TrEMBL record:
<dbReference type="Pfam" id="PF13767">
    <property type="entry name" value="DUF4168"/>
</dbReference>
<feature type="signal peptide">
    <location>
        <begin position="1"/>
        <end position="24"/>
    </location>
</feature>
<protein>
    <submittedName>
        <fullName>DUF4168 domain-containing protein</fullName>
    </submittedName>
</protein>
<feature type="domain" description="DUF4168">
    <location>
        <begin position="45"/>
        <end position="121"/>
    </location>
</feature>
<feature type="compositionally biased region" description="Low complexity">
    <location>
        <begin position="20"/>
        <end position="40"/>
    </location>
</feature>
<dbReference type="InterPro" id="IPR025433">
    <property type="entry name" value="DUF4168"/>
</dbReference>
<keyword id="KW-0732">Signal</keyword>
<feature type="region of interest" description="Disordered">
    <location>
        <begin position="20"/>
        <end position="46"/>
    </location>
</feature>
Amino acid sequence: MQRMTALISAALLSAGLMSATAHAQQDPAAAPEQPQAAAPTMDVSDEQLQQFADASEDIVVISEEYTERLHAAEDEAAQQEVQMEANDKMVEAVEESGLDVDTFNTIGQAVQQDPELMQRVQEMVES
């Protein structure tokens, strides 16, 4: 369950990465100021960051597809089944990118806390 929550959080982060650039281009003043947390710096290679960006793009697609299916589910058991299937697909997407789930989540946290790292991921997603 904790793994699913982390992946879903990553999917939401990824969705934010995908739309942040477009939003910032429309109205740069609309970006909210966020306090800088003292985060440990993570040495992320360009290859790992590209793997993260690739997996994030796949996770956004999976998240959108399964969100629709989740809303269409008739009861809690059906919703749980959809969530488990979505989680499996997200794990598969991460592993196919060449990362393990823990590394993906660690990079995701680093990206959230490091604006420079986030910029690098956004550039990779756009290219």
